[in-house]
C-alpha cells in the first residue's frame, strides 16, 4: 500500500474528530474545520484551523488540527514545528504528542523508503518517545495507545516481546473502539509479529468486514494479510482459496503473488501447494509473467534448478516478462551457463537483463564468467566482444575498459588499446594496476602518442604514488631507467627491491645485473677522468 493511501486511512480512522468533540466545541469555525478535515479537504481545513487559533490562541484543538492537516499534506516537519508549543510544554497536551508522534513516524517511513537507515531510525525513535509520553500523559486515550502500537510495529526487527507489549497497550483501545478498522489492522499486525497467526487472520478478516467500501486498497491489504496468516497458521486449504481470490481480483498485481510466497512458498511443507496454485494461475492468466516468475523462485528455493529454469523461461517468453523482469533473465543466464554449459544462451539472457537494468550485478557476473572462459580458450576476440557488451551496460567501470585494452593488445590493435586505457584511466585513475598496465602498453609496444616513453614513465611514477610497493611498476620503471641510463642509481634501488622481495624474478635479476655493470663502468670512467686531470 502506498504512503498516500496510508495517510488517508490514518486520517480517517485514527485522527478524525468525533461527532461528540465537534458538538462540544461551541466554536462554529472549529466545527467547520473538523468537517473539512474529515472530508479530506486538508488545505482548506488548515486555513480554518489557523483562523481559529489566531482568534482563540488557548484552543488546543485548533493547533492540533493544524498539525494533523500538515501531516495529511505530507509536511511532517512543519507539523512538528506547529505542534511543539503544546507537545513540549509541561505538562504536554496528549493530542499534540500523538500528532507529533505520527509526524515523526511518517518521516521515518519516508526515510526508510529513501534508504536512509540512520535517518529513519532517528525519526522512528522520536516517534516512539512521543507516543510513549502520550500514553503516560493520557493512559485511557485510545488514540494514544493506537499510535504507540503503530509506531512500535514499525521497527526494523519486531520480536515477540515487542509484539506482546504492543498487544497489551492496544487492548484498552480496542475495547473502546472494537470496530475501528485501523485499530483492528494494528491488532492483526501485532498478533502476526507475535506468531499468533490464527488470531491475526481473524483480526484481518474483521478489518475487511468493517472497512468502508470506498477504502478498497485498505480492505485488499487486509485480505492479503489474512490469506498469509491462514497459511502460516497451517490452514493451507483456506490459504489457497483466499490467495486464489486475492490474485483473481488483481491478476497483474505482484503483491498478491508476494502473499503466495509468504504464505506457502517459503515453507517446504507448503511449497507443493504453492506450486499447484501458481501453475493453475499460469493457466488461468497465460499472458501474465507473474505466476511463472514466482514459480521459478519457488523451484529455486527448493533447489530444483531445472524446474526453475523452465519456469523463468516461460516468464520471459511473455511480452511483459521480456520487458520487465531483468532478474528472471539473469537467472536464465546463470542456469544456462553453469547448469547447461550453454554459453551462447547465457550471453543472450544476461545481455537482455542488462538492457532492462544495467545495474544488474549478477548478469554482469555471467558475462565475466564467459570472458574468463574465453581467456582460458585463448580467444581474445570473443573476450573483447563480451567485454564490450559489459561496457555498453556500465560504461563508467574502469576495470572493464582496462580488460578491453588488454584483449585489444593481445590482438596487436595497440592504437585501440591505448584509447581503451585512456577511458580506463578516466574512470579508475586511482587503480594502480590499471595505471601500470597503461604505462606498459606505451613502454613495450608501438603506440602513436607524443613521447610515449615519457608518458609511460609518468604512469609508472603515478602507480608508485598510489602503491609504493607495486612490484610490477618498480620493475618496469627500473628497467626503463636502466636502459635509458637516465637515473642508474634509482634503477638499481628499484630493481634491487624487486629482487629482494622475489629472488627468483629472472627479468629483474638480469636487468639489475646490467644496471650494476653500467654503474661500475661509469665509476671506472670517472676514475680514469680524474686520473687524467
List keywords for this structure.
533 residues; mainly alpha; elongated; 30 helices; disordered N terminus; single chain; 0% strand
TL;DR?
With 533 residues, the protein is mainly alpha-helical.
Explain how this protein is built:
It is a single chain. The protein has 533 residues and is mainly alpha-helical. The protein contains 30 helices and no strands. Helix 20 packs antiparallel against helix 21, helix 22 runs antiparallel to helix 23 and helix 24 packs antiparallel against helix 25. The termini are far apart.
Q: What's the overall geometry? A: elongated
Order of helices and strands: HHHHHHHHHHHHHHHHHHHHHHHHHHHHHH
Task: Average the pLDDT over all residues and give the rounded result.
Answer: 90
Number of helices: 30
Parts with pLDDT < 50 across at least 5 consecutive residues: 1-26
Structural class: mainly alpha
Terminal CA distance reads: 96 Å
Helix fraction bin: over 70%
Amino acid at each position: 500500500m502506498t504512503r498516500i493511501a496510508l495517510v488517508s486511512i490514518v486520517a480517517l480512522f485514527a485522527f478524525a474528530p468525533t461527532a461528540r468533540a465537534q458538538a462540544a466545541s461551541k466554536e462554529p469555525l472549529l466545527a467547520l474545520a473538523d468537517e473539512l478535515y474529515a472530508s479530506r479537504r486538508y488545505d482548506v481545513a488548515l486555513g480554518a484551523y489557523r483562523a481559529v487559533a489566531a482568534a482563540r490562541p488557548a484552543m488546543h484543538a485548533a493547533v492540533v488540527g493544524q498539525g494533523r492537516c500538515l501531516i495529511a499534506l505530507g509536511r511532517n516537519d512543519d507539523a512538528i514545528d506547529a505542534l511543539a508549543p503544546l507537545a513540549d510544554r509541561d505538562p504536554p497536551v496528549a493530542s499534540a504528542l500523538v500528532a507529533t508522534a505520527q509526524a515523526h513516524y511518517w518521516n521515518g517511513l519516508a526515510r526508510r523508503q529513501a534508504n536512509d537507515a540512520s535517518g529513519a531510525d532517528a525519526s522512528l525513535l522520536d516517534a516512539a518517545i512521543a507516543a510513549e509520553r502520550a500514553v503516560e500523559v493520557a493512559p485511557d486515550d485510545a488514540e494514544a495507545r493506537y499510535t504507540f502500537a503503530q509506531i512500535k510495529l514499525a521497527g526494523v526487527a519486531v520480536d515477540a516481546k515487542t509484539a506482546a507489549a504492543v498487544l497489551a497497550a492496544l487492548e484498552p483501545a480496542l475495547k473502546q473502539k472494537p470496530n475501528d478498522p485501523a485499530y483492528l489492522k494494528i491488532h492483526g499486525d501485532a498478533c502476526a509479529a507475535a506468531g499468533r497467526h490464527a488470531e491475526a487472520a481473524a483480526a484481518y478478516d474483521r478489518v475487511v468486514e468493517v472497512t468502508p467500501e470506498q477504502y478498497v486498497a485498505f480492505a485488499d491489504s487486509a485480505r492479503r494479510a489474512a490469506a498469509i496468516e491462514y497459511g502460516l497458521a497451517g490452514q493451507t486449504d483456506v490459504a489457497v482459496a483466499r490467495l486464489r481470490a486475492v490474485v483473481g481480483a488483481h491478476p497483474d498485481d505482484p503483491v498478491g503473488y508476494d502473499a503466495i510466497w509468504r504464505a506457502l512458498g517459503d515453507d517446504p511443507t507448503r511449497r507443493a501447494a504453492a506450486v499447484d496454485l501458481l501453475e493453475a494461475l499460469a493457466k488461468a492468466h497465460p499472458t501474465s509473467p507473474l505466476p511463472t516468475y514466482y514459480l521459478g523462485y519457488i523451484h529455486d528455493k527448493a533447489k530444483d534448478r531445472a524446474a526453475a529454469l523452465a519456469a523463468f523461461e516461460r516468464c520471459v517468453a511473455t511480452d511483459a516478462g521480456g520487458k520487465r523482469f531483468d532478474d528472471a533473465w539473469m537467472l536464465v543466464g546463470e542456469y544456462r551457463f553453469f547448469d547447461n554449459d550453454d554459453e551462447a544462451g547465457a550471453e543472450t539472457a544476461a545481455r537482455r537483463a542488462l538492457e532492462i537494468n544495467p545495474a544488474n550485478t549478477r548478469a554482469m557476473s555471467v558475462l565475466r564468467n564467459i570472458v574468463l572462459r574465453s581467456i582460458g580458450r585463448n580467444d581474445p576476440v570473443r573476450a573483447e566482444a563480451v567485454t564490450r557488451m559489459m561496457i555498453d551496460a556500465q560504461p563508467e567501470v574502469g576495470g572493464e575498459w582496462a580488460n578491453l585494452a588488454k584483449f585489444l593488445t593481445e590482438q596487436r590493435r595497440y592504437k585501440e588499446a591505448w584509447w581503451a586505457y585512456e577511458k580506463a584511466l578516466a574512470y579508475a585513475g586511482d587503480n594502480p594496476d590499471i595505471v601500470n598496465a597503461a604505462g606498459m602498453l606505451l613502454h613495450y609496444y608501438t603506440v602513436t602518442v607524443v613521447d610515449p616513453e615519457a608518458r609511460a614513465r609518468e604512469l609508472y611514477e603515478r602507480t608508485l604514488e598510489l602503491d609504493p610497493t607495486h612490484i610490477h611498476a618498480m620493475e618496469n620503471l627500473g628497467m626503463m631507467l636502466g636502459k635509458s641510463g637516465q637515473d642508474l642509481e634509482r634503477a638499481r634501488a628499484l630493481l634491487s627491491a624487486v629482487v629482494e622481495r622475489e629472488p627468483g624474478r629472472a627479468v629483474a635479476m638480469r636487468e639489475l645485473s646490467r644496471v650494476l655493470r653500467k654503474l661500475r663502468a661509469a665509476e671506472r670512467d670517472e676514475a680514469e677522468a680524474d686520473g687524467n686531470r
